[in-house]
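pasting for the record
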Amino acid sequence: MKEIRRLVLQMAENNPTWGYSRIQGALRHLGHRVARSTVAKIMKEYGIEPAPDRPMSWRTFVRSHAHLIAAADFFTTEVWTARGLVTHYTLFVIDVATRRVHIVGTTTHPTSEWMEQIARNLTDCQDGFLMARRFLIIDRDALFSPRFKAILESSGVEILLTAYRAPNMNAFAERFVRSIKSECLSQMVFVGQASLDRAIAEYVAHYHDERSHQGIGNEIVSGAMPQRLGQIEVKERLGGLLNYYHRRAA
């Protein structure tokens, strides 16, 4: 009965349009013969509404619309300047389906005016990163100003705000922040913004063209195919902080 309960809850969560009979039929195909009333009882015990009243889960929504979704977030870095240590804010956008990252900009003062210009750049009709996306996931950080959101929405991009204290709702962006911090930025000391910009650019190139990603089956974002022949070489970035092992092309 424990497995049946688990399957009912999993099917209900992943398939919001499935009713009691549909779940009953799916269970039967797995060798479990249960009454429709049993399915209904399990769902009611866990507070799950019957279709079509059951809302789609966040996970299912993101998975079903991944090709239309991007996510945005900031990460901060301390940089030595003539004024001492100064916090720099870097805004990036990540394509949920492909994991491709676009560094939007870095500034010490992410003002409303700066964010407005960013919104215009992202929705530029020629090369705006969000032109092919319908949704943008962001958290409730005040840096995402009302004007920033309004410009995006006027261009047809729907803002999806995460719930309070729910970082998993923006898991793709959160994961990129952890990666660039642990693999690169936390290992370096920066003197001037130019040194930070260079490190970020090198990491993003490594992230796209050389680093495997578990979320897409350990493939490389750029789609580069592994070589089976040729001498093994190591390509270093940032003095060996980032390494890429590959075979020399024949």
